[in-house]
Every structure is written in structure tokens, then in C-alpha cells.
Amino acid sequence: MTDQSFPTFPSSESAIAPMERASFWQRLFAFVIDTVVLSIIVGCISLAGLPNWSPGGNEQFQDWWSAAWVIIQGVIPAIYYIYSYSTSGQTLGKHILKIKVVSIDGSPLNWAKGLIRTIGYITSSIPLNLGFLWSLGNKERQAWHDKMAVTYVVPANIKREQFQGTIEPLEVRRRQKPWLLGLGIPTILILIVGYSTSIIFINRKLAEVREMGPWPGIEIRPGELITVDLSHLGLELGQVQNARDQETWANGSYEEGVLVTYVAEAKDVVAIWALRYKDDLSASNDYRSVQAYAAEAGVCGRNTYAYKGNTGVIHCQFSDAYQKLFWKDNWIVSILALEGTGLSPEILVDQVRDAIAAHWLQIQSP
User: Which CATH code fits 222-364?
Assistant: First the structure.
């Protein structure tokens, strides 16, 4: 009688035990190489001016483009990894370390598995890189992104045919499902929410800077820039000082800077710094230094954001004061408001900013 029974498959344990895997250190060094390569690519694009690109100097387009650049910086690595995995199974780093990514059943990696594995990198890195370290604790040496994409990392000389027929397709899907649903889908949702929030946040920051425009040229003196009539806010002009006489900006790289204070009932309530730089690169360096300090000190970290456009604003919340620091082109303008009027410091900063913007229009009108 003809045997009608279905073919049997070796158990997963017996199938995978003899197969060699790439070591944790090989994978780590390959990942470091890929990170360096991607940093160089993104850096070259930044130096070429792509983040600041705007056809015909269209500022509205530039607002959109500066926000979109946040996504583009994430898309570039995604394309790099997805293309590498779905074609040869090797990134440049893995090629140098002579290892590759393969499906656990020997089937070729496609773009979908490449995408899942790339998203899995984010999943693996979120909890203090625990997902990467996971490969140290199991004999299959699979990190979380391997579990999600059902892949192995093996020496490059291993043939895919060696895996063929060792695991049933249903077993492959069974292994993948809990990892994909438990970690992969939440990561995708986090990415969508995170990027959407970043774009909204950046556009709001850019709008604040744009609302102050048109920003003056470098021929205008800093003192003229921020000596404003604030009597409608109950404030009188106090002192006009050299910015270098104040600790806050004593060591800045600006060419000329002033501090103008405004008083209410003999008390300093508003301090405005205007700093003029020889170029926007010098201004951006000082801006990012202040931002890094604010984030490190924990004073402004929740409101601070750095991005690659040519404008920026930092919000700083103190116990009894509120500060906004604006940067565009060759200028940095900082407004610090204290308690002392009928307005809260947060509202007072914006009122002073509006007054400065109106003043700029006046001094630049023909």
C-alpha cells in the first residue's frame, strides 16, 4: 500500500543546533560601521545645504521642509537597511565582518522582512538597548529585531540551501506572531505619534521665529534693535549695557551685543539681549551651546529641540521667570521676563516679542 502520510520535518531544536551563528561582537562592530557610514551620509547632505533648501527663498516652503527633514533623517537609514537586507542580506558593516542576515527557513529576505527588521532596531534600542543584548541570552543568538523578522545572523559563507526544509512555514509564523504583535506594532505606533508630534512642534517653533520677521540686516546696531517702547506694558527703559559685561553671554562668539533692561516699580522685569554675529554659522553654534546647556541642566529640557533648519527658538521655564531665545541668520535675540507686572512671565515674553517685531518693521520701513 502506498504511504500517504505527510512528510515530517526535523524539530526546530535539532535543526538549528548545528548551524553556526554570528557572534555578538561581530554584530556589534558591524552595527558601529553602519552607524558611522550613515552619519557620514547625513552629514554630507547637511553640508550640501539640503536641510535649508528653499526654492526661490520661499519661507513658507522652508518651514515645511525643515520639519520634513526630521523624517528624512529617519528615512535615509531605513532605505539603507531595507535595501541591504532585501538584496544581499548584508549591509556594508556586515560585509566587512563577513556575516549576513538570512530567514530562519532559508527563504530569501524580501523588502517586508527588511522593513520589519529595520523597525525592530528601534524596538531593540528603546529599553536601554535590551533588545540587542537579548542575543546574548539565547542559543539562537536572536535579538528582538531577529525575533520580529524571523531571521538569523550567520557567517557569510553559509548557503541558504542549508536552511531549506528545516522548519515548517506554520512554525515560522508561529514564532513571529507574538513578537510582531507585542513589540513591532507598538513601535510603529510610537514612531507615527513621535514623528507627528515632532513636526507639529518644529512648525510651531519656526512660526514663532517667522512672526518676528522680517529680521534686520547686520548693518543695524544691536542697541537699536531692542530699544523698544514698552510703556503699554507698564515698563520703562532701564539700562543699556554691553552683553559681555553679563555672565550669561560674556564668552559668546558674537561681534557686538547689548543687554537692555526694562523696569516696573523700580524693579527689573524684562531683560533683552541682542547679539550680532559675522555669519549664521557662528550664531547657530552659540544657539546650540545654550540649548545643550539648558537640556543638561534640566531647566529647559522639556521645551528644547534642535533641528537642522536655519531658525530656532528655545523656551526656558524657571521658578519665577520665563525666557525665549530666538535665532535666525546673523542674530540671536533673548527675552527674559520676571514677575512684576499684571502679566505672567510666559505671556509677558510674547507681548515683548510682538513689540520688538513691530519695532523692526518700523525701523526697516523706507
Answer: 3.40.1000.20
Distance CA 52, CA 50 (A): 5
The string of pLDDT tens digits covering residues 208-238 is 887 887 888 888 899 998 999 999 999 999 9
CA dist., res. 250 & res. 171, Å (int): 66
Tens digit of pLDDT for each residue in 74-111? 889 999 999 999 999 999 999 999 999 988 887 778 89
Domain boundaries, the chain: 12-207, 222-364
d(CA 50, CA 356): 31
| Cβ-defined contacts of 112-116 (< 8 Å, 24+) | 113/85, 113/86, 113/149, 113/150, 113/151, 114/81, 114/82, 114/83, 114/84, 114/85, 114/86, 114/149, 115/78, 115/82, 116/145, 116/148, 116/149, 116/180, 116/184
C-alpha grid cell for residue 335? 527675552
